[in-house]
Amino acid sequence: MALPWWTLFVLAAAACSWISVTVLARNNPGERLSWFRSPTVAPLSQLWFLAASVACAWLGGSYAADTALGGWAYPIAALAVLVPWTLVRAGHNRHVG
Question: Transmembrane stretches, by residue range (predicted)?
Answer without folding.
Answer: 6-26, 47-65, 71-88
